[in-house]
Amino acid sequence: MLQRKNQVTDVIRHHWNARAATFDGELGHGVHSEDQRQAWLRLLARIAGPAPQRVLDAGCGTGVLALLFAELGHRVTGVDLAVQMIEAARRKAADANAQIEFRVENVAALTDPAGTYDLVVARHVIWTLPDPARGVAQWLRVLRAGGRLALIEGKWAYNDVVPRFSHPVRSALASLERTALSFASLLVGRKHWKLYSHEYRQLERQLPFSGGPPMQRLTSFLEQQGVNDVSFEPLMDPVLWEELPRFPRYLVMGCRPKR
Description:
Elements: H1 2-23, H2 34-48, E1 54-58, H3 64-71, E2 75-80, H4 83-95, E3 100-104, E4 117-123, H5 132-142, E5 143-154, H6 168-188, H7 193-206, H8 215-224, E6 228-234, H9 238-241, E7 249-255
Parallel strand pairs: 1-2, 1-4, 2-3, 4-5
Antiparallel strand pairs: 5-7, 6-7
Helix pairs in contact: 1-4, 1-7, 2-3
């Protein structure tokens, strides 16, 4: 079981490392205009409240939200599984002279002591987790009593999950390719990058929130995990995303019980 978890973690890490170099250039990931920056600052200021708060950016990627929280005067820590994402975040923080702690770490296995943070925020993260309940449990653990959890999420497709089956011929060809790549990887002693891609696509189809959770489903899920005072609101302002979103995007907030 432990070996399987390590293999899954390795595949996920490789996927997001591979995307680090171009991540900020994608719509909805980086900040590409002053209007967009101000829109995110207004939203994050409302989420966090008066500074300084101790903020954890879980699954921080290249540090976009972490830098904005720091600009608002908060004490920020960012964690991400992908080394290259964290390296990019550190470079950006250094360029901005921002004092942010960035760590390479699994957001579902945090090393922080219980009650460390006033706010845990995760943007487009929970849908990527093989075990979202474990992730939420960790986020609640590191929050102080009454501390707040904020998830910025979306529904990336109309289906509840990514389609699990494809055309039989394509499936057969993909299977042959995986076999060939596995053999080649054994010969050179290193897994081929295309094999990682195959494995990630297969894993993505099996994720509990593959395709992104609908807002009501995520709200109910958080309540089931013991998050108190759960509320939600749509985030469909095109300025935030540089386009009018095709699918719903939203904010869900709640808090750790005070006792």
